[in-house]
Write a structure and sequence with these properties.
By secondary structure, the protein is mainly α. Helices cover about 75% and strands about 0% of the residues. It has two domains: about 45 residues, no CATH class; about 190 residues, no CATH class.
């Protein structure tokens, strides 16, 4: 004969579960709000508009790159190569201006194309050859870092830099491209990417498929979801956002 559980105990247990779920979902946001409140009380200048803009500008590039990592995490993967991909994209796009005097479209397209090639290489090795994602992207991180250093010959690519033959670079960085990294454009780009990614992952079937794959890959496969296709997409998007951040 089973012993009935008191209603009060059941209600308490339910409240504990709900409280745990709440902090699990919103704990990070609450922590940030509390920290902002503490900093604002200790130093009122912290919440001044100029300081908030500086904070948003400083985190914008990291946030854009982190969005790509987030997408790879949704399919139970992890991309360690995003930092090197961002560095490679940065070197390519600036060299297109300074070394080859290309226009903005060609420079950006070259950087994104090189980054997507790295993403395609990662996805091919992980999906087709079944190399563990962390091992593969760790190797790619060092390989791409070496390629970027070889491409730039260990130098910082900038206007009027000294070339290997002793001459000075004659190309100029496009004024339009220079504005992208300034306020408010870099903040607006970050906001658009964050909102678009949230909508994609939360409100589209493709985003939900990625969450399902990350939760249970075998169940997703048996449900008819093309697991490999979405894993490839995740690593390509990771490389793309690394390129945009770079």
């Amino acid at each position: 004969m089973s012993i009935p559980i008191p209603v009060t105990q059941t209600a308490k247990a339910k409240k504990k579960v709900e409280l745990f779920d709440f902090f699990y979902k919103y704990g990070t946001i609450l922590t940030i709000i509390i920290l902002i409140g503490i900093f604002a009380v200790s130093n009122p200048s912290f919440i001044q508009t100029s300081n908030l803009i500086n904070i948003l500008r400083s985190i914008s590039i990291v946030t854009i790159i982190a969005i790509g990592i987030t997408i790879s995490l949704t399919v139970d993967g992890f991309d360690l190569s995003v930092g090197s991909v961002a560095s490679l994209a940065n070197a390519i796009v600036i060299s297109m201006f300074v070394w080859f005097s290309q226009d903005t479209f060609i420079a950006i397209l070259a950087a994104i194309g090189a980054s997507l090639f790295v993403g395609a290489l990662n996805s091919f090795m992980i999906v087709k050859l079944r190399i563990p994602d962390m091992l593969m992207t760790l190797a790619t991180m060092f390989i791409i870092q070496g390629i970027a250093l070889t491409y730039t010959k260990g130098a910082t690519v900038s206007q009027n830099m000294v070339m290997p033959d002793g001459t000075f670079a004659t190309g100029l960085i496009s004024p339009f491209f220079a504005k992208i990294g300034q306020v408010p454009w870099i903040i607006l780009i970050m906001a658009v990417i964050v909102i678009a990614t949230h909508i994609f992952l939360t409100y589209t079937k493709h985003g939900r498929y990625m969450y399902i794959i990350g939760g249970n890959k075998e169940a997703a496969r048996l449900s008819g979801i093309s697991v490999n296709k979405y894993k490839i997409l995740a690593y390509l998007l990771s490389a793309l956002f690394a390129a945009i951040g770079g």
